[in-house]
Amino acid sequence: MKVTDHLKQAQKPIISLEILPPTKGKSIDSIFSQLDAFMEFKPSFINVTYHRAEQVFKKRTDGTFERVDIRKRPGTVGICAAIMNRYGVDAVPHLICGGFSKEETENALIDLHFLGVNNVLALRGDAPSNEKFFTPHPHGHHYADDLVQQIADLNKGKYQEDDILDGVETNFCIGVAGYPEKHFEAPNMDSDLYFLKKKIDKGAEYITTQMFFENKHFYNFQEQCKQNGILVPIIPGLKPLTTKKQLTIIPSIFKVEVPIELSTEIMKAKTEAACDQIGAEWLLAQCKDLLKQNTPILHFYTLGKPHIVKKVLEQLF
Ligand code: FAD
User: How far from the centroid of its chain's Cα atoms is residue 41's Cα?
Assistant: First the structure.
């Protein structure tokens, strides 16, 4: 079922999860062991992130350099099929522009369609860790709106090769990312919203947000979207913050603010268990407030500390 249909048909608030493919070599069991624990909460869908390979330059014996992949997280397509097969829960693969040609993207979409996956979250991706700025694949997309266009075209049976034989129309429900605190590259919120609208105009049907630790950012974002004619459902992305290290890592990676009350409490905590407790209570309070405002869905970034998310869900539902 499509994400938008889950939202339309929900009689009460629903939840969804996001997981990360395991690094190369690990088995699907590492995913299942994480997800098994969440099935009692009946997640409506599970997002599976997509990652370009991490690369380094290795010196050859002749003094020249070669680029080698040092870490891969393969298998988003396969993991989605495995999740749907094991749990009967819809999977939402993420597709990114970075590192992929349009042809490779088309092949991934054909595989997903073949497997009965009819949701996809279309993203640009970030620059690899050894590069400062995002550079598109020479035959790929520069921004997520172009990827949205490619998927929307495929939904109309338009493939990269005009003369393709037996090119069926796919039926993907396309989601995109939104940033309540602005995407870090956008010069201002207006510009970011302008390009977000472009993604919707090209065929995206809903938005999933970057994590936020103060709900006011989400409510302001909802309002700004409305004012800019962005009327699709907006799914709030939520993550527990439970370590002192995350106080600097999260703002530096995701460019979001950690409120002073939360950072002060975490800094004061003496043990890991105390940090977990503070993070869980904060997330619980955020969720309760969102539900009070009639938010129909809560989307959890479960990577890292799934037991905290589980604990919060136990208290919520
Ligand atoms: P875009 O929508 O392309 O926007 C990127 C920037 O360019 C923005 O500042 C925007 O304002 C601007 N812009 C957009 N279109 C144009 C245009 N046509 N011309 C000029 N400027 C433009 N990353 C991964 O690698 N894998 C994942 O699985 C993944 N999952 C994510 C899930 C969610 C819910 C979120 C919020 C992020 C996720 N990311 C993931 C991170 C994401 O790839 C990065 O935040 C990336 O920097 C931007 O992606 P985007 O799709 O929002 O890009």
Answer: 20
Instruction: For a ligand 1 pocket test, name from 124, 147, 225 the mutation site with the most ligand atoms within 8 angstroms of its C-beta.
Output: 124
CATH, residue 41: 3.20.20.220
Domain membership flag for residue 277 = no
Does any domain span residue 287? no
In a domain, residue 249? The reply is no
Which residue, by CA, sits nearest to atom 42 of ligand 1? 125
Residue 144, pLDDT > 90, answer yes
- Calpha distance 104→112 (Å, rounded): 12
**Helices within 19-172 (DSSP H only):** 29-36, 76-87, 102-114, 144-155
144 Cα–ligand 1 center, Å = 6
pLDDT digits (tens, 9 = 90+) for 73-130: 568 999 999 999 999 999 999 999 999 999 999 999 999 999 999 999 999 999 988 8
- Which residues, at least 6 apart from 271, have a Cβ–Cβ distance to it below 8 Å? none
Does any domain span residue 99? yes
pLDDT at 64: 81
Name all residues whose Cβ lies below 6 A of ligand 1: 49-51, 94, 96, 123-126, 143-145, 177, 183, 185-186, 191-192, 195, 199, 208, 210, 237
Confidence grade of residue 52 (pLDDT, cut at 50, 70, 90): confident
Kindly tell me if the per-residue pLDDT of 277 is higher than 60: yes
**Structural domain boundaries enclosing 176:** 3-242+297-303
Average pLDDT over residues 260-269: 98
Q: Which atom of ligand 1 is nearest to the CA of 76?
A: 28
Is 71 a residue whose pLDDT tops 60?
no
What are the backbone dihedrals phi and psi of residue 54, each rounded to the nearest 5 degrees, phi first? -85, 135
Q: Which atom number of ligand 1 is nearest to the Cα of residue 94?
A: 28
Residue 26 C-alpha to ligand 1 middle, in angstroms?
28
For residue 183, the ligand 1 atom closest to its alpha carbon is 9
In angstroms, rounded to a whole number, what is the distance separating the alpha carbons of residues 190 and 254? 19
Domain count, the chain: 1
The H or E element spanning position 112 is helix 102-114
